[in-house]
Amino acid sequence: xxxxxxxxxxxxxxxxxxxxxxxxxxxxxxxQFSMPWDMESTWVSHSFENTIDWDYQMADDPEWxxxxxxxxFVLHLAQAWVITQDSRYAEKAVxxxxxxxxxxPYSIEREKTTWRSLDASMRLMHWIDAMLLLKQEDSEQFLAxxxxxxxxxxxxxxxFLLFSNWGIIGNAGLFKGSLLLHDTKRALLxxxxxxxxxxxxxxxxxxxxxxxxxxxAEVLSALLSMIQTAKRYGWPLDSYITDKAxxxxxxxxxxxxxxxxxxxQSDSDxxxxxxxxxxxxxxxxxxxxxxxxxxxxxxxSSFFAGKEAIESFARRTTQEPGFCSFAAMASGNIYLRTGxxxxxxxxxxxxxxxxxxxxxxxxxxxxxxxxxxDVLVDSGRYTYCEKEExxxxxxQASHNTIVVDGKDAxxxxxxxxxxxxxxxxxxxxxxxxNWNYAQANNLGYLMGAxxxxxxxxxxLQIDASLVLIHDTLIxxxxxxxxxxxxxxxxxxxxxxxxxIHFSSPGIASTLxxxxxxxAVSNRTLYAPHYNDLTxxxxxxxxxxxEGSNSALFVLHSEPMDQPKSCTIVELxxxxxxxxxxxxxxxxxxxxxxxxxxxxxEVLLRYQETMELLCAGSLKTYGRACVHQGSRTEVxxx
Length: 637
Description:
By secondary structure, the chain is an alpha+beta fold. The chain contains 16 helices and 29 strands. A hairpin with a 2-residue loop joins β16 and β17.
């Protein structure tokens, strides 16, 4: 296996170092869950001197117990043995399996600790992979343990599981264990359950309905495990499962940040997704995913694929996707993208339903990456415990969105539930060359309100450096409006006149806002990973208004070593036929000048007219129109 060690040392040295560190800790019965895809990670270690208490809970979070019971460390030990041939790793991996079966066999009482169906399935899949690598998969004691797991998982069938990531992940383990036992009846049962769950859970744009990129990736990984297992045993896997895996991988690619991580949406972490996309490209033989993959076969697959497959993958031809921006309308996620390099810009616009309990109150939230650097970010998740931090991070104010009269349109009730959920409507997307437009409405402040407000947000991405956020607030009453903007923890902000300047290594951004807003800057909670809480620079912009009004925000970002000035001037709007000057409640326009570039003119119309409207060089009937040089584009009529 020297080729494998060389492969990992050459192409994935950081992963190999982390893997061996985890395996070495496990040799001494010391546990820390900080591998990239540990769902509820922790950077605090805990050791058991002699007997392991498999039901042990660290501090106040049961997620530590669940992570322990998933036995990822058993696979790490087996992988370390493959790399080093040090028998201590192999012996300890087998010891952990035997000890768990002896000390924590299935019981109804343990279904809330070590035998939740999700964790039991993940444990089973880790054990099987480990024993295959150790070439001990025929051990009688091990096979008895596999049978214990498949007996239990076969009984786990409910409406909750049908519509939860738990159901798909749980049945992926049942499928893998059943084929190891040559139990074709249960393998077929697992396959049927997964196919049925996929028909409900995977939306037409390819996203798993719970609105969490993390759990989307976990479900896709479960499907890839089934595909790998089916290939190993020559099982005729239902093509519907394979097709859904392709759809999910395509969504993951379309939603990818320029740095190849997924966005910190809902209950997710800041995680590199190239390993999952690489595994998908390899198992599905899908070259269209190549731009989101590693150039070499990723570590997990490399342990099972063999030298020839590793070398063949490295020789494959690559291609860019046939699209750039991506409007996932079924889930309500629009991605405005300038290209596929790591130095490109991308704007993520949340305009859909919350999804399941993992969803956050993020309607009309915007993430912005400029020239490969995070500028506007989501606040993350931190914990699932019923704590103040959990409540804060799920509420609207932790997202780049709008709060009316200090009240949320989506009302937090508990860590997994909401007392009220805002609805979204009138979603639109249009792409004209390198100019992109998205729009959606928040109906949450109409629902049951004595003084209703309709919020309409429009996003215009002009190029890699310029994003316009325009909000129209339709009401007949007096209200206070608060706009929340959260900047990357990698930089800091400074207040200027009608502007917020953000600088971090590599990028300088300025958020311009209109006069009459009160700006308050502070540090707010930020959790890039579970159990990883820090702060980030944030600003709240507030104003009071009577009746309908609108607000424009211009985010101008340039690489730190390529600065450009930016000026914004509001233009009068008049009718081409009547020459009447239109009020700001009817239409607005602006001229934006970046350095020596040709000026950009934008016109937004709020009310229907019976004539063309003029502003600067623009003449249009469109509701959203952009002009630069000889080019004019209407995005919305």
